[in-house]
Here is the input.
Amino acid sequence: MEEQAFGPIRFIPGSNGGRYPNCHSVFIEGADVLIDPGADRNALKALRQEKRINQVWLTHWHEDHIMNLDLFEDVPLYTSEAAAGPLGDMEAFMDAYGAGEEIRDLWKPLMEKAFHFRPRQPAGYLKAGKGVEIGPLRVDIIDTPGHAVGHLSFYFPENDVLLSGDYDLSGFGPWYGDVGSDIEQTLASIKRLEEIEAEICLTPHETGVFVRPAKELWEKYAAVIDKREEKILELLSTPQTLETLVDSWVIYGKPREPLAFYQFGERGHITKHLDRLIAEGRVASDGKTFERV
Ligand SMILES: [Zn+2]
Here is the structure.
């Protein structure tokens, strides 16, 4: 993938097409703000050489978005207040994902080696607001929780460019597997982003650059949630435990490696759906098994 510029907004591609665990970054010329430093490590090192970077911003605290944050330890960090806990402490990071002991043992060394996790304290917090001045530019900071607690998106009205954050318009669909994730909030955030009708939408994974993304594309992305729910309801025509549902790979489609890591992700999503279906009175549970009502 190639670097692209939309006025002062530079799209810096992540390795391997920005597929997880990689992520695309954005650099705002003039304001000299780097957003989500998960792009190719060498490209970010080169950017550091080329530019004085004033601030690093994060849409949220997930590992793929902070992969190369360690290269900018001396640059002030800004993100939502909700992201400060997990960014500041490995155990708090694991807690925010709801990781059990077996996952922590697998994940902690990976976080340090592959994601270069170093505890960081933000220099300040980004709050939702319209027309916030950054250098010569203005940005709308938009609360978009659901994917993660405190998730932010950024819209640059002068250039009609939206950074949607992890609402990435991918075929996989929305991700809402951690403790603070929420399906209803995810749907509301997708709607909020769709209604901006931005000329350019930059996302952190895969395609990355969408020119005038159609309403249908946002709707198709959101509809993945319904499709998952339909599959879960189909399975629940006979009683299922959480683990038999996890082993059905409704979310990821098939087992992926490292298995424990993806089972954990699958479980996180299935749990959110079960909670929602029980609250709607569509599924009942005896505490062990779940069944369609
Ligand atoms: Zn994320």
About this structure: The two ends are 48 Å apart (CA to CA). The mean pLDDT is 97.
